[in-house]
Amino acid sequence: MESVRAAVYLSVCLSVLTSLCQGQRSADNQLPSAADEPMLGFTTDELAEALHGFLDDSSFGLSVEKKASVIPRCDVGERCAMKHGPRIGRLCDCLRGTACNTFFLRCY
Fold it and tell me: Keywords for this entry (predicted)?
């Protein structure tokens, strides 16, 4: 019980100490900002304009939209799934009011 109390007391003290010391950092230890130094001889604005121009002119056509897959409908008694080892792959979607029986793999 005493060890738990000591651990909680130590963690509270350390968290208070680190929160107090966050504002005490000196300006010498900070990294220079990215806008001040040019990267490979180019400024950030020039790199942004070049990237924007490349993306506008590119014709590789990335599609962000998700393609909707259409699953065909099965009638009652038709085979609706296949078994691949422990997995069951769906072949079609059963009509409303019926379900694919995983033992017979048919719509009932």
Answer: Disulfide bond, Secreted, Signal
